[in-house]
Amino acid sequence: MSVAIVDGATIINFLEDEEAFNVSVCDRFAYLDTDHDGLLSYAEMLKELQSLRVFETHFGIDVETDPDELASVYESLFVKFDHNLNGTVELEEFKKETKQMMLAMADGMGFLPVQMVLEEDSILKKAVERESNQVATA
Ligand SMILES: [Ca+2]
Ligand SMILES: [Ca+2]
C-alpha cells in the first residue's frame, strides 16, 4: 500500500481516457477472477469490496465495525455490481459499476486534494500512477 494525494480531477481524467480505464478494469477483473471462469463470485469480489474501504479511517484511527454489519454491507455492495442479479459479476457489470463508484468518489472530492491510502494493483492507484507518469513526461 502507498499513500498519495488524489483529487477529483485525477479520477475524472482517468475515466475520460477510456483506453487506460478499460485496460485497468480488465487487469483488475483478471486479478480478482482467481478461478479464471470469466465471472466474479462473491468470494472473489470480496477482495475488491474490501479495498473500496467503505468504512474509512478518520484521522488515522480505524473505525470499529461490527463484523455482521460489515458482511451485510459487502453483500449489498455485491448486489450493486450484480446488475442482472444472477449471483456473479460479469466484466461489463464490473466496468459499469466501477466507473459509477469512481465518478461518485470524484464528485465527493471536488477539487480539494485528499490524502488516500492506495491498495497495490487497485484501479485508483493506476489512476494516480497514470497522472504522475504524465507529469513526468510532460
Ligand atoms: Ca471466477
Ligand atoms: Ca451478474
Number of helical regions: 6
Bound molecules: calcium ion
What structural class should be given to the helix and strand makeup? mainly alpha
What is the helix fraction of residues, given as a range?
Answer: 55-70%
* Mean pLDDT across all amino acids: 86
Count of structural domains: 1
β-strand amount:
5-15%
Strand order of the largest sheet: 1-2
Helix and strand sequence: EHHHHHEH
Protein model, in words:
- This protein has helices at 8-16, 18-32, 42-51, 67-81, 91-109, 123-137, and strands spanning 2-6, 114-118.
- The chain is globular.
- Strands 1-2 form a two-stranded antiparallel ribbon.
- The chain has one domain: Recoverin, domain 1 (Orthogonal Bundle), CATH 1.10.238.10.
- The protein has six helices and two strands.
- It is 60% helix and 7% strand.
- It binds calcium ion (CA) (2 copies).
- One calcium ion is lined by residues 33, 35, 37, 39-41, 44.
Features:
mainly alpha; 138 residues; Recoverin, domain 1; 6 helices; two-stranded antiparallel ribbon; binds calcium ion
What would a concise description of this structure say?
With 138 residues, the chain is mainly α.
Topology:
Elements lengths: L1 E5 L1 H9 L1 H15 L9 H10 L15 H15 L9 H19 L4 E5 L4 H15 L1
Antiparallel strand pairs: 1-2
This protein binds calcium ion (2 copies).
